[in-house]
């Protein structure tokens, strides 16, 4: 009798343990949402045609609309002075999901979301998610910049490299640090002891004239390759490089397609996969508030694109560096 009671006690404890695990699993998921009936809008900081961040987002939006059979509205060229106003408009118009694409939206989204708990907000490349209805999803851009560095380090001839970026925020500085460190390592392995790295920020995503001047100055100082991540402003860098015979490594989109003679290679962000990942988690209740998540090589977000001048050997080295 005592033995039977002990056995029942063990079964009961096991059952209680499973219920606790089930309860924890439920807490990790919010309510399931019907994606096709959800009103979804994406806010972009610029227009299309930048061969960078905004083009990448628009390609991702189109991909998901076609594959998932849904409608995603898009507000382009939302200026920083308009962030809160546009976010409020979207919430007042009863959008279910508002995706703000860019780290610069972080403060405005977290401030606005507190007043509109029935709207869910997601910051793409955001750095914080302070509210229960705010999620932040960051591409691990430093993984992509390391891929770009493998290309640069293996095609460089003089060891003087230029880097031109938009804003010196934490994420940008980190990806540039990773790029510089990896390029330096490869150049030293190739026997180049003297390396020079020039770095500048436009403090603008759109000022093509300023970016062109920066690029011209760097090329004049001996930079043979420019690593560029400054959205529309980057078009000015490509113009300068084309005029003066330098090469560019594109980032986040695929300027190699438009300028194969100047943009030797690009690391394209596959935002079709990124948006699909976000929307799937939103639909299944796994896109949770007050949470910052990262995606990158493991999710297949970064895709190298090469001009004909990049050898099979260098392409293989990029594969190895990215863990393929």
Q: Main sheet?
A: 6 strands, parallel
SSE pattern: HEHEHEHEEHEHEHEHEHEHEEH
**Outline type:** elongated
Mean pLDDT: 92
Total of helices: 11
Text of the CATH class of the largest domain? Alpha Beta
> What is the rounded Rg?
23 Å
Find the count of extended strands (DSSP E, 2+ residues).
12
Provide a concise account of the structure shown.
45% of the residues lie in helices and 20% in strands.
Could you characterize the architecture of this molecule?
- By secondary structure, the chain is of the alpha/beta class.
- The chain folds into two domains: 35-140 and 271-299, Response regulator (Rossmann fold); 141-269 and 302-321, 3-Layer(aba) Sandwich (Rossmann fold).
- Helix content is 45%, strand content 20%.
- It is built from eleven helices and twelve strands.
- It has helices at 2-27, 53-68, 83-92, 106-113, 141-155, 170-189, 208-220, 234-244, 255-258, 271-283, 312-321, and strands at 40-43, 72-75, 97-101, 120-124, 134-139, 160-165, 196-201, 225-229, 247-252, 263-269, 291-295, 302-306.
- It has a six-stranded parallel beta sheet, sandwiched between helices. The protein has a six-stranded mixed beta sheet with strand order 7-6-8-9-10-12, with helices on both faces.
- The longest helix has 26 residues, at 2-27.
- The chain is elongated and about 60 Å long.
- It starts with a helix and ends with a helix.
- The model is unreliable at 17-26 (pLDDT under 50).
């Amino acid at each position: 009798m005592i033995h039977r009671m002990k056995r029942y006690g063990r079964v009961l404890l096991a059952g209680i343990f499973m219920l606790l695990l089930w309860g924890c699993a439920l807490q990790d998921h919010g309510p399931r949402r019907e994606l096709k009936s959800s009103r979804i809008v994406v806010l972009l900081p610029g227009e299309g045609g930048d061969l960078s961040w905004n083009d990448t987002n628009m390609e991702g939006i189109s991909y998901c609309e076609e594959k998932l059979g849904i409608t995603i509205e898009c507000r382009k060229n939302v200026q920083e002075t308009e962030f809160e106003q546009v976010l409020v408009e979207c919430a007042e118009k009863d959008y279910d999901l508002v995706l703000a694409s860019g780290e610069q939206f972080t403060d405005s989204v977290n401030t606005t979301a507190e007043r509109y708990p029935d709207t869910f907000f997601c910051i793409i490349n955001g750095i914080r998610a302070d509210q229960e209805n705010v999620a932040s999803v960051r591409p691990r851009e430093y993984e992509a910049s390391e891929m770009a560095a493998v290309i640069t380090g293996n095609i460089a001839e003089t060891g003087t490299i230029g880097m031109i970026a938009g804003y010196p925020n934490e994420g940008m500085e980190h990806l540039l640090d990773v790029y510089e460190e990896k390029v330096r390592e490869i150049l030293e392995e190739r026997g180049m002891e003297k390396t020079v790295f020039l770095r500048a920020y436009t403090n603008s995503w759109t000022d093509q004239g300023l970016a062109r001047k920066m690029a011209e100055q760097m090329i004049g100082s001996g930079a043979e390759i420019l690593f560029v991540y400054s959205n529309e402003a980057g078009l000015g860098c490509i113009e300068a490089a084309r005029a003066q015979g330098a090469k560019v490594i594109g980032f986040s989109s695929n300027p190699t397609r438009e300028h194969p003679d100047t943009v030797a290679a690009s690391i394209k962000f596959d935002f079709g996969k990124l948006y699909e990942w976000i929307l799937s988690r939103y639909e299944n209740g796994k896109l949770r508030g007050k949470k910052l998540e990262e995606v990158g090589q493991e999710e297949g977000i970064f895709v190298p694109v090469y001009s004909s001048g990049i050898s099979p050997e260098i392409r293989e080295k990029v594969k190895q560096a990215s863990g393929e």
